[in-house]
Amino acid sequence: MDEPAPELTILYQDDDIVAIHKPAGLLVHRSYLARKERFFAMQLTRDLIGCHVFPVHRLDRPTSGVLLFAKSSEVARNLCEQFAEHKIKKDYLALVRGNMHEAGLLDYPLRVELDDVADKHAKADKPAQEAQTSYQPLLNSEIPFSSGRYPTSRFALIKLSPHTGRKHQLRRHMAHLRHPILGDTTHGDGKQNKFSREHFGVNRLWLIAKRLSFTHPVTGKPMTIETQIEQQWLATFALLGWTDAQLQQLDFIQ
Fold first, then answer.
1. Does the N-terminal or the C-terminal CB of the chain have fewer CB atoms within 10 Å?
2. Which of the residues 14, 47, 60, 125 is marked catalytic?
């Protein structure tokens, strides 16, 4: 039986750009590293709107949320320049291990992560690149279930805003802060990941690209595109004891 194509939601569209909500687990575009994959956000978006689209940024496969495409190479060039010059603001939501109580800016350089196949000819001794991430705790939870050596488990919902675009930056920065993102099988906590899969009943990286702010490449107007969090987040929030009233106080959740 053929696997059904993932369902995409168009968040915004005009003559020049289109933004979608990318589901977790979907690759942005074709890659020889994923030859067995059938579905890609770029092709699905093209088929959905009936015209070719150009990628201007990427979301890791396990990350869901706002993904922006251009409808022409000229528009794509403008948006790519905005990304390269850090003129585009990206805001994420993440569930992490442990409680967090203070906001901050992490300025921690990251070495280039090389892929065994794609980067086999790349130099492995490159100096670390600058990387900055702002983080802001939104809600904390402590639930009466053990996920390690303690009788309870603590988690936090946080807002993350990367100021640079290094590979796996948010995941690596949160791991550096000892608050790894739940479901991160590369940089995270194996015990916590197992607990979250079993207790929350969801196997995913708990990271969503919630909001993207930029200058429209043709009109010059400021744009902000935001997506709603998936239902599985709300179900997990309930398991963490967060009430609708608490969530409604957070305009970033809506």
1. N
2. 60
32 secondary structure, DSSP code: G
Q: What is the pLDDT of residues 111-156, one digit of tens each?
A: 988 664 444 454 556 789 999 999 999 999 999 999 888 899 999 9
CB neighbour class for 213 (10 Å; exposed up to 12, middle 13-18, buried from 19): middle
What are 172-186's pLDDT values in tens digits? 999 999 999 999 999
| This prediction's pTM | 0.92
Burial class (CB in 10 A: 0-12, 13-18, 19+), 132: middle
Q: Is 60 a catalytic residue?
A: yes
What whole-number distance in Å separates Cα of residue 64 and Cα of residue 16? 23
Cα–Cα dist 119/84, whole Å: 21
CA-to-CA distance for 93 and 207, rounded, in angstroms?
A: 6
